[in-house]
Amino acid sequence: MLRLILGRLGAAWITLLVIAVVVFVGVEVMPGDACTAHLGRDAVREDVLANCRKRMGLNQPPVQRFVSWAGGVVQGDLGVSMKRERPIVDIVLPRLRNTLILAGAAALAGVPLAILLGFLCGLARERAFDVGASTIALVAMTMPEFVVASLLILIFSIWLGWSTGVVTAAYDAPALTLLFATPLPAITLALVYVAHILRMVRSSVIETMGAEFVLMARMKGVPERRIVLRHLLPNAILPSISLIGLTLAWLLSGVVIVESVFNYPGIGRLAVNAVADRDLPLVQAIALLFGLFYVLTTLSSDLVAMALNPRLRTQRG
Amino acid sequence: MTFAQQLLAATALALSATPALAEKVFLRANDLSMGGAESLDPLSPNRFYEVNDLNYSRLVRQDAAGQPSPELATSWTPNADATEWVLTLQSGVTFHDGSAFDAADVAYSLGRIEDPALESPVAAVLGFIDRVEVVDPLTVKVILEAPHAGLPLLLLDYRVRMIPEGAGPTIEDAPIGTGPFKVERFDAEGSTRLVANEAYWEGRPKLDAIQFTAIPDSEARSQAMLSGQLDASSLTRDQVALYEGNPGFTVQSYPSGGWFGIVFRTDTPPFDNAKVRKALRIAVNREEMMTLMVGGDGGVVGCDTPVRFDDPFRANLDCPQDIDGAKALLAEAGYPDGIDIVLSTSDLEPGMVRFAEVYQAQVAPAGIRVTLKLEPADGYWDDVWMQAPASVTSWGERPADQILNEAWRTGSSWNESYYANAVYDQTLDEARSTLDLTAAKTLYVKAQEILFQEGGTFIPYQENGLQVLSARVRGIDAVGEDYIRWHLVDLAE
Question: Over the Cα atoms of chain A, what is R_g?
Fold first, then answer.
């Protein structure tokens, strides 16, 4: 068990290194750099452009910049944002907190709901409830987040006036202010992955219902309620756990879009701005954080699945 | 007291502490165009323009016709050859910290413009100021390196704002100005709040506060405006339909001097031939082009002049579409069978690609075959503009003298068409030293006529600006940001 965790963590380091290299190369090959993005038309003034590149350290060769940056990261120093001229940690941490608040709210409300709905759909297979809920889930899954977001704003804040449209709270606002600023971003995020988890749990319930041990329990005369709660539920949810982990990690890509549309002051909106500003150290720091989050979520969901299912513990790869 | 009684008492106390009238807070958005590096130093290349406009004052400001009218300077008088200007200052003006505004502050604020450490873009506009002398507490003498009759016009620049003497090094952290509002909280990436300056010399503002929220995404700004979280926002032409016919909003179109153009590099074949350049410009139906781009009332047509339509120095020429004339000019220049050109453009700003497409279609009958080259928006100003032989350009409003010098004077750093004409330069020099307005106008018009005859820049029209206001806003006419008198702006109850 311990060896497995350590092995996975080692692989995580390699994943993060690959992410860093890919992001660095990606930003390097794009036309323009932080200085031309920042100066715009002033970039034709050679002296101003040269001063800017010197100030931001862009006059050094790319490999040297990458090595000195990576060296800092290993020692826990994410560097200084080129554009904002402040330590990246100070910029990223408050926004990371905000994103965790948003994603956390969406997950806390959404995951139990998704499991419950999926379970009910599976039990009520092909009856009105299942057909209705599954159809809505399919629609929610296929609609891109920005469409869902715009629709929610149109209906709930412009037509009905029940909720504010976009978040105007600052990134350093108290957690509760952000949480209650508007429910719409959390709902948008939740809708998509609730749909995914619901589908997964539903099919898993249907599959388990046909399993031999369920048949056996029925033949033994075990009461139906006991079959559902003791036999069906744990076995149907197990395969969904790693999917839930993946879905949560996948939430991050949704966060980038949802935060931009709702002006939510989190790490996703920061990522978009950092790319637009060509703020390479900041882009890399955010990409690393996303990577780290991804690795940690999948790892912990695998561990939870292992803890719940003794059979997985013996399968060592 | 029981718990319920305590609760009641506490509620009553809280209620009595609430002011009888709600605060009037005007809500705006800032687009984070400086990416979080927004500076409260008005001269900084990263100037936080919307906030600086409220917090600091200029010496002069635009009247309704765009001409200088008194702000902190009450009068401006040149000597006979326009090499020295005497400015008289408004008395009784105080800074936000209570100190008096006087001539030393003006001398300091103007003197900073050329500070090399600031790298201020204003140095390119007002770098010809040699020094500023304090005559008495309410009089300064501005001494120029060369004659300039248009100094007051250039002092209209939105970045030339007065700060206390010696405050330069601290101005970003302690933004002390004389404006109608003063910065209370500043965070370009979060929210910025300015409160009314009770001691504002033109009277206390009607608003209590103006609050900015950072909303970098233009769609999100639009959503915020639609759901009533903003009182004002700029608009793109495509967004107008969202607000039209909705009683909750007022859409305003106001004249502005901004324009798109096509630059043909006059130092690169085939555009080094003035006949080719003229053919490329007169083959266009400008009215139709403007109607297609921004609608018939979306701007004002002009003949390759960068000067705003109501500017007294504007040349009003006539330039109808002339297909035969263009063909004849091309034949004379050695292209009897028409000409092939490559035009670079990019979706850097909305409409820039469409602009090139409309041009392409319009000049085709004259035998001008345009191939469009779509360039990435990133790095456009660095890699394409002033590099490609022909490219689409975009400029904001500038006073006549400034734009005519900035974009066409030989050797100017933004001379995008690499235009070099001694007669043109000399005409501008003469105009600068001519104090008589009528005589100066003749010279500026002559300069614009030169550009129309042989320049390398095609400028079909100047586009109007667009903004939307919430229905509770009072006191903002259909004018650009520079013209709004913020201390008179109000919100209906």
Answer: 24
Q: Given CB atoms, is A32 within the 8 Å cutoff of chain B?
A: yes
Tokens of A306: 């292992």
The ipTM is 0.74
**Interface membership of A48 toward B (CB under 8 Å):** yes
Contact indicator for A81, A270 with CB cutoff of 8 Å: no
- Which of B255, B233, B286 has its CA nearest to residue B463? B255
* Chain B residues closer than 8 Å to A81 by CB: 36
Look up tokens 């001008």; give the residue.
B368
A298 close to A59: Cβ distance less than 8 angstroms = no
Q: Determine phi and psi for B76, rounding to 5 degrees.
A: -145, 125
Q: What mean pLDDT comes out for the span B211-217?
A: 90
Measured N-to-C along each axis, helices B286-294 and B352-363 cross at an angle, to the nearest 10 degrees, of 150
Instruction: Write out chain B residues lying below 8 Å of A279, CB-based.
Output: 35
Segment B299-326 shows an average pLDDT of 92
Best residue in B192, B381, B385 to probe A by mutation, most A CBs within 10 Å?
B381
Q: What is the pLDDT of residues B230-283, one digit of tens each?
A: 999 988 888 888 898 899 999 999 888 899 999 999 999 999 999 999 999 999
Nearest residue on chain B to A32, alpha-carbon basis? B379
Q: Check: CB of residue B440 under 8 Å from CB of residue B313.
A: yes
Q: What is the pTM of this model?
A: 0.82
Measured between alpha carbons, how far is B304 from B316 in angstroms, rounded to an integer?
10
d(CA A248, CA B199): 55
Contact B263, B384 (CB under 8 A): no
- Planar angle of CA B320, B323, B328, nearest 5 degrees: 120
Query: What is the C-alpha separation between A56 and A65, in angstroms, rounded?
Result: 11
Amino acid at A308: L
Of the candidates B19, B36, B43, which has an alpha carbon nearest to the alpha carbon of residue B192?
B36
Alpha-helical segments (H) within B340-421: 352-363, 400-408
Nearest to A42 among B121, B216, B376 (CB): B121
Closest CA to A167 of A155, A158, A178, A154: A178
Check CB contact of A202 with chain B, cutoff 8 Å: no
Assess contact for B95 and B164: CB atoms under 8 A.
Answer: yes
